[in-house]
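Subject: Sanity check before I submit

Could someone independently write out the structure tokens for this chain? I want to compare against mine line by line before I put it in a report. The sequence has 256 residues.
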Amino acid sequence: MDKVVASAEEAVADVHDGASIAVGGFGLSGVPNTLIDAVRDKGVSGLSVVSNNCGAMDSGLAVLLSAGRIVRVTGSYIGGNKEFARQYLGGELELELIPQGTLAERLRAGGCGIPAFFTPAGVGTQVADGGLPWRYDGNGGVALASPPKEVREFDGTEYVLERGITTDFALVRAARGDRHGNLVFNKSSRNFNPLAAMAGRITIAEVEELVEPGELDPDQVHLPGIFVQRVVALTPAQAADKKIEKITVTPREVQV
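---
Independent answer below. Compare away.
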């Protein structure tokens, strides 16, 4: 039952060329940076990643993207990642854009063994009708477009069929975890991390604080250890390394 491994490098040792990887996090929150760096250092390529976004500020999945290790992204947000946009528009990268709630549910469905489900999100758009550019040809044309999906009516409302997502591996980050793989996430880092963890056949969690079994209140566990195969305890420096994407402050009132 002890799922702790000595290092991030050991934890990702079997990640291979062409692997599919679900990655937790949202923006810079809850991103498993240490595990991602270990995947980069391993030198694997041809990766297909599933994540809300593909890194930012030269951190997270951006380090794999800039190194040319990713060939396909399934996600919801390009945002301010200029390299992501450049590779996509230049035909170097395949991208399946998915409504954010649908992406979350597709990961959860895959983790629960549900092959597909119907949702109203995307009905009447290219999400359902097809034609979304998955890959450009580098000259402004579309080399590969999304196919149409099944649409069915239930009780007078149309719904589109979406498939559950499973991946070879999942990389997640938790605030606390025990040796059995039970995890607790902090605030907004709880968004995609549990769902990504559920979707991976082999799920690897980096934890800021490792505790012994029994120390976590069962009512506070956000993800049970049944979904986690490996746990990596971060060093204090790694746990404290949390970047801020945009710093905003309220102007100080001028005293007269």
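---
OP: Matches mine. For the report I'm noting this point. Residues 21 and 155 are 37 Å apart (CA to CA).
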